[in-house]
């Protein structure tokens, strides 16, 4: 919560009392209440032609803060659309319940409700707990703990991971005979619907084969490609909303004007008319996913690690650095060689990304993007690197992203990564042993190819000198 300037302290708090937006019935359950969900899925739902029929019960992930602040505003918040031309403000009311994710009882209740038709996910790539082999890591401590809970072998009685909670909710829906629904994955993963299915089925099979069979027959897993740059909200943003709108909103969201949503899959219990708001439904989503994962997210990761090594704090700052921009363009050249289809409009997409990244009024912090690197690199760098090597080319630009990450881990403080302890242990080693230990955390196959290790090692050494990107 911001320290309110004296002149705004007397303004009314945003709520449905001052913005009389009717609450729609809960038909969507969301996991991962955060800024991106509110700038994207919730925005699209409000702008659907049948929005009055689709309310969202949104649950937090790690902490209750976002739910507490939003609940105090009846679920309302302001989207600040920020461009070089200025700001526009819109109140969003599609979230009708904002709930602490630890309230597992309420989560199970709404998932099991017959009216619920969709579960959308923004739980981060790392939350799917998949190993490098693409299967659920059922040895991860939190997965082991949740499986004990689900099997009735733990006195706590409440799963703590998003996967554990989701499986518990689906078990309650089966028991209530509430019918089929769709799980819509909105995390930055290639083939994310299949990833979500693999993770959910992996956990379900581990304790109840009957539940796994029910999920297989009654739950569809929809793949999506999502896109809207949404930086962290600052106190200055909160004050700007108060000054422009005449009310206090303690939880606004700042986003760029651009937005995109591509979906592929079945919706057995129906869905909002998201296409009214510009969403696109396709039969084959992989090319769109790869375009976004490699060109946008891949460039973001490269800028996050190389940019911070060169002293930059935001995407716009890093892109203004000629060395960083060249590294991005080189990576895009490699990625584009494996992106086929006129519908993808790769040259136009790249030009639009440069404009979006250069929006200096969107303070997209590199430290935020840099989180969970050991997971993100598997989707953003490795596919391009492998495609280049298979085509007989070096893959140097993709390898540079991995090299930048290895250099960054040695200097970052408070590294946020699902393998943070293992990364810290690797960084206690020296020389090639250190590099191989880090690469093994991304994908053991990398270490098996000495030519790739040599390539990454040579590139990583250049970062020792002021983040040299040559």
Query: Strand count, sense and closure of the main sheet?
Result: 8 strands, mixed
Instruction: Characterize the overall form.
Output: globular
Widest sheet: strand ordering: 5-2-1-6-7-8-10-11
* Beta-strand percent range: 5-15%
Rg computed from alpha carbons, rounded to a whole number of angstroms:
22 Å
Mean of residue pLDDT values: 93
Q: What is the percent of helical residues?
A: 40-55%
Instruction: State the separation between the terminal residues, measured CA to CA.
Output: 43 Å
The low-confidence runs, each spanning 5 or more residues with pLDDT under 50, are none
- Kindly state the number of beta strands: 11
Q: Given the helix and strand composition, which structural class is it?
A: alpha/beta
Give the number of helices. 21
Organism: Arthrobacter gyeryongensis
Family: Belongs to the mannitol dehydrogenase family.
EC number: 1.1.1.17
Protein name: Mannitol-1-phosphate 5-dehydrogenase
Structure in words:
By secondary structure, this protein is an alpha/beta fold. It is built from 21 helices and eleven strands. It has helices spanning 35-39, 41-46, 65-71, 104-111, 141-150, 162-176, 192-207, 209-218, 235-245, 286-309, 315-319, 322-336, 346-357, 366-369, 373-380, 382-390, 396-411, 420-426, 431-442, 444-448, 450-462, and strands spanning 26-31, 55-59, 77-83, 86-92, 95-99, 118-121, 181-185, 219-227, 253-255, 260-264, 280-281. A hairpin with a 2-residue loop joins strand 3 (77-83) and strand 4. Helix 4 (104-111) crosses helix 6 (162-176). The mean pLDDT is 93.
